[in-house]
Amino acid sequence: MIELEGLPELVDPVLIAAFEGWNDAGEASSGVIAHLESAWKAEPLVALDPDDYYDFQVTRPVVEMGDGLTRSIIWPTTRLLRARPPGLDHDVVLLRGIEPNMRWRSFCADIIEVCRELGVEFAVMLGALLNDSPHTRPVPVIGGATDEGLARSTNLELSRYEGPTGIVGVLQHAFGEAGLSAISLWASVPHYVAQPPNPKATVALLRRLEDVLEIPMPLGDLDEEARAWERGVDELASQDSEVAEYVKELEERKDAAELPEASGDAIAAEFERYLRHRDTDTDS
């Protein structure tokens, strides 16, 4: 059961959600929520009861110690937080969770119940998957939507994937079944450098999120961390001729599949992003 009494009244809130685990290659999507939670100084709203959805032998609680004494136990769960980004007149709800081990349909129903109580009518689910994209090129971000009109209005490059899915796909579908609008954004993480963190993929998700929501996304040091990450992978690849040759092959394949110059949509999106950040800087 979720305790919904005492929840604040939010102003036109949108939901941004990500889950650790299968949906989170390189911790790129959960990294978005962690970054926004800090940058926007998000405040806790509600947490799901972990006993309902987590197998603690699979997803174990964490003990915090101090002076040799057990100070607290941090239970794996899913939490929702409230943020009011600078310069905006509406709220953002951040969902930061761990993919549940059981009872996914009840889990989704609980999330939807909370969202209805908060007044959320639109959600963006974030994920990251392992792919054969080269680390030297822009991170591809593909997506899905609860209906075709929403996909067109958000200019999504739709995924053609069919196969096993995670909680991101299930929750997006549940939103559609409940009459709520939702899209998903998936960043492609190079499978040959899968270990977290991957700040370049996190930045790619933030930029695409900015385009969709038309909300300036604070990047902080993430841009520089992304460049440092790429330089580090360059150095590692240069030390192994087989890896270097493989990366070159991926680059050639990627370049051959794309247009030689930026598309009109890409240029327009970049210009709109510049204007949003300029307006935000002026207001501050």
UniProtKB/TrEMBL annotation:
Pfam families: PAC2. It comes from the Bacteria. InterPro entries: Proteasome_assmbl_chaperone_2 (IPR019151), PSMG2_sf (IPR038389), Rv2714-like (IPR008492). This is Carboxylate--amine ligase. It comes from Nonomuraea cavernae.
